[in-house]
Task: structure prediction
Amino acid sequence: MNIKFITKLPYNSNNIIKICSVKSANCIVVNNYLDIIKLSANIETIIKYNPNIDTNIIFDISKLSTRLIDVFIYRITQGLYSFNKYITKKTIKNIQFFSRKYNKNGQNIINIVESANFARNLINEPSNKMIPNTFANYIKTLFKSKSNVNVKILNSYDISRLKLNLINAIGGYSKNKPNMVILDYKPKNYKKTICIAGKGVMIDTGGYSIKNVKGMNNMHMDKEGACISVSLFNNLVSNKNKNRIICLCPLVENIISNESLKPRDVVTAYNGLSVEIANVDAEGRLILADTLSYICKNYKPNYIIDIATLTGSGKYCHTSFSYFTTNERLAKYVVSSARELGENILRIPKWVEYIEYIKSDIADVKNSNYNCDKSEDLMASLFLMNFIEKKYRNNWIHFDIRMIGPINSLNVAEGYGSILKIINKI
Result:
């Protein structure tokens, strides 16, 4: 997908789609976020049945309200995204936007979309093409030439030696052993350290808490948190963010073997807490737990962000993600950033007293099966809180992102743009 702004509409062209905020002839009317979401979900169909439009598409947004331009571009490119790496005869879409009053600001939103597409291409890689070691080596190569980025790869031996036992318990018994990618960008005279943790489950069968056929179908996308995290890191480094950014991605396969983790097993986490494995299919919070503890012990973060597909927050209509934080200033950043890109969000209640429901009767804590109805996103957040030192908890945000949204049958990295904006505001 190639994207750019143009300063002049071609004469007598038939491949122009007009977008307006006021009803006009031959123009699609867009007045709000829902109009844009619905149009984005149907844009491929509109193009398919328009004989005048092929791979070159021009959106005339000169009569679209300025407040909706970024939202429109961000969302419409989600609808137009395709993953064609393994298609023999592929086409590349050339998407152009015309707006006299916005061209000077257009590069900012294009930068976000191109970075989001980088994440999307990683997320949609099949699990046989992207195993933990493949992912780790790809990232190592990606940042090899960047002198201001330190890349560290923990292999399965390192993970075992460091007693990252929850990561090892999930991924250590697959043929494709776990890795942990650690990226560290340290600009001169930085004042803040921001740590980003991304869940990287390359394939999730549910383990011995096995999923059914339908539930397993898109589980190669369960690495979305790691893919988004790496792409965010890449964008922040490329745009010379003023803060130190550390990105940590545990990479595992959650599959069945003769030694795999079983329900009701007990594992001692990196921070010393014993964890009852009530559900092997709640594996994302386990690998994140060790990662968050590792962050707290080895760095002095001013802010901690974790990104994961944990509980299917997408069950809410058109929701890009839900989020948990006890910090009201950070919550305001989340709300304002999501509004700028038209991403619908829900805040998980900050009911920290409910952390008592995380207790197990055979270990310190358990990873699922809590006696608290309809609260999976809250309980997952509070489970993770056990692995963040108390002094860091108020500057932590947990993002529970959705895997498949209403706009595209592929994963389009919901929440990417909002989270990038949030980090840039910190």
User: Anything to note?
Assistant: Residues 22 and 326 are 41 Å apart (CA to CA).
